[in-house]
Every structure is written in C-alpha cells, then in structure tokens.
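User: Hey, my collaborator sent me this sequence without any context and asked if I could get a structure. I don't really work with proteins. Can you help?
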Amino acid sequence: MLLEGQVAVITGGGSGIGRATALQLAQEGASVVIGNRNTARGQETVRLVREQDRTCRFVRTDVQVAADVERLIDTAVQDYGRLDILFNNAGVNLKKPLSETTEAEWDTVLDSNLKGVFLGCKYALSHLVRQGSGVIINDSSNAGLIGRAEDPVYCASKHGVVGLTKALALAHGPDGVRVNAICPGPIETLMMQEQREFAPDTKAYDRAVAGATALNRIATAEEVAALVLFLCSEAGRFITGAAIPIDGGKTAGVLAKPPGVA
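Assistant: No problem. I've predicted the 3D structure and written it out in structure-token form, which is a compact way to encode the shape of the chain:
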C-alpha cells in the first residue's frame, strides 16, 4: 500500500473531491480524519471508508473558524500520534460581477477559500516541521491560473491559494515538507450540480462546460483524487511548489474554432 501507516486530514471531505480522496487514501492504507461543516455528509464519508475496513473519523469543522481548524488537526495528532497529509479542499464559489458583490460575500469567499487554507497550513505545519516530513495539498482551481470574467472574487481567492502554496513550498522544503496545489477544471461535484440548477437548459450547460476543454468532457471527482494520491505518495516526492492543472486542457490555450466561425 502506498500510504500504509500514514495519517491524512481532509477538509471538505463530505462530498465530491474530498470524499473521493478520502476513499482513495484509505484504500492505500491511510487513516483519515474528515473535517466538514455539514455533519451528515461528513459522517456518510466516514461510513463509506469504514465499509472498506479502513480507519476514519469525523470532526465538524468550519474552515473559516480558527478554533475549528486547530481542533481538527489536533484531533488527528492526538488520536493517531502523527500527521502526514493535509488536503485543504473545502471551498465555495460565487459567480457575480464585482460591482454587485457585497463586502459580506467577499469575506465569505475569501474566508472559505483562502483563510481556510491559511489556517489548515498554519496548524498542520507546526506538527509536520517538528516531525521532519509531510505533504500539504491545497485545492485551488484553474481559476487560480487564469482570469475568469464571470467569478472575479472566486478567481482572486484561488490565485491566493496558488501564491501561498508556492511560498510555503519554498519556506518548508528544507524542513522535509512538500506543498502543492491542484487546479481542477470542470468536475462533477456538488458545486457543479448547484451551478447546473441555475441553467435554463442543463444539457446545453453540460455541452458548453465540456466543450471548453480539449477533451470535451467533465471529469469525475475520482480522477482528481487520483492526482492527490499521487502527490501524497513516494512517486511524487520531488514535486513541491507546483500548481497542477487537472482541467482537460482548459487552461492550455485557445481551442480551435469550429469551421465557419470567424
């Protein structure tokens, strides 16, 4: 097993990428601690992991609250004696022009997407540095690599995640800690399902989303989880400070225009 004896903490582990990652890390031998704001979803992930005869527990966590994040990290260390992996996955989206965005909405997005990553890293690093080893994976977005007109606040938060990731990788590489960001594109998650509900034609929405990628499809959460697993494993031991797109080529450049389109 790739992660036998290791301990992983996952925020936003109640669905989507977080849940898929919990299942894959557990399959490879890791003990997993799930942090999630929605208790029912978090406990459902625990049930699914335990169905595989793997170790998992849940700690209700709002990543915007420092005390919650500190308790999540401390629980993992107290229960299992160590911490090897932190996956900062929790986040929210906001599709709204900046001129219509309230200060409260700005604060919510930045607190969830960037402050939450800051808090996770802050409390995990004290253990990882003392231990002399560990991996942090931060969930950014392809919106953290490019500009997107439709969601500027989300875009700003995810660019911040990439910047923080690179800085921490440089600061803590000498301590034996690797820090990377993943930058997903269109993934079948609760967030995408919520966005789809606002579309007047869901089939047309899916075609448009998939068509913006070179591979012309929407990815699964399991595909993203496989990248996280790779980065956590020995196979990824020389990768740090990276912001890796997993977006079907969406950020690679401009797709060829269909015939007849000027």
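In plain terms: The CA atoms of residues 64 and 115 lie 7 Å apart. You can pass these tokens on to your collaborator as they are.
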